[in-house]
Amino acid sequence: MGDIKQQNHGGGRDEGSNIEGANPVLAEFAVALYAHDDVKRVCLDAQDTFGADVNLLLWAAWQAHRGHTLSPSQVARADALCEDWRAGVVQPLREQRRIWAGQASQAHLYDAVKALELQAEFTQLAMLAEVDVDGVDVAKPGPEDAAALLSQNLSALATHWTLAGQALAPVANALVATGQFVDT
To answer: I need a labelling partner for 64 at 20 to 30 A (CA). Which of 3, 101, 132, 149 fits?
Structure first.
């Protein structure tokens, strides 16, 4: 999710960013989690190291929070739904933002691309919020159940992305450590 920070959730979100068009519940959940430095760090590490999609990681956490275990077919469907958008919009914007980073004389271009990338990521979250997870919401899971669901959902993503078994364990640990995972 780029370099966003959320107002009222631990650290002054950029004024130009907004979550219009995104599912407000998923978007706010994702932004609140991503505002934690450890979550941001491990998600970006998974993205840069394994090619993981940060929005899919946060969506899987949201589904676990809601009491849903993701099946391999649901993960595949969610990934396929976002594939063209991610490849054609989000990733090129990310590449451009990284090119402009650190070029003080062109800060306005960096800021403009960063705002577009953030809006593209919120659009992707809106797409993910529409993925049918085959069932109704269940009762809010307790902390141990939510952590187990999160582990299962991240494992389903790791399997889909053909990652080693514990590749996403740092992501799970950071998400659970926020305390926000089971509180919202």
So the answer is: 3
